[in-house]
Design brief:
Nod_factor_ABC_transporter, cell membrane
Amino acid sequence: MAGIVAIWQRDVLKFFRDRARLVGSFAMPFMFLILFGSGMSGAMKAMMGGTGASGPLRDFDFVEFMFPGIVGMAVFTTSIFSALSVVQDKEFGYMREILVSPISRMSIAIGKVLGGSTVAVFQGLLMMIFVPFIGLEINLSIILRLIPVMFLVAFVISSIGLLIASTLKTSQAFQMVIQILIFPMLFLSGAFFPLSGMPAWMNVLVKINPLTYAVDMFKKIILQADQMTPALKEAMGLNLSVFNHTITFTEEVLFMVAAGLIFIILATVSFSRTEAT
């Protein structure tokens, strides 16, 4: 346990000491809010049926619709890129020093995932500084509900990142693979656009994408979906369904827990095998 905590603490401290990384992490969310949120607000509102006086989205700003996706993007990118430190530790020899210590490889893997998850939660919470500029009302109870959900999502994505990192030897290869993976997962999650009118084959990808359920949970919490009218929820795509069954918030949590267990097991096994060879 001491080994897990030590590795966890190391990754968190590295994040807070890297000011360039801390400040630079705002660039992409801010760009998406400006370009897709403000710039395409009118067009997207028309596509979602909210231009008329009686439209379900007549009083709704597309920036507000997009904000939970921005939070999801911050958590997702931070957690999956946290596994880059594993590859860098391999390159610079630090990982070899850890492996000769009495810490088990499983403890190293779990410490890395927990460190990446903690950093991702902090990054997600930092996105709340945009709230006063977009008109959303977010109180303390919403933030307290968000934190465990963000940690669960970050844990799943950090495990996926570790699984990928354990099979690669260079940071360049890791970044290339992640760039190929990250944007399809984001755009097929409903983070920026409603998940309606998609071809059948693409809809399958949407339903097996873990980020789809993560973004949907963020939307239900931040936008307070329980207080929306059925028409508004339908227009915003908050009635996520699989095989004609509408997925509840509890079912999404259970899905992410199951995904987290699967990926952390696969990541620890892969990490152990890779370092043993």
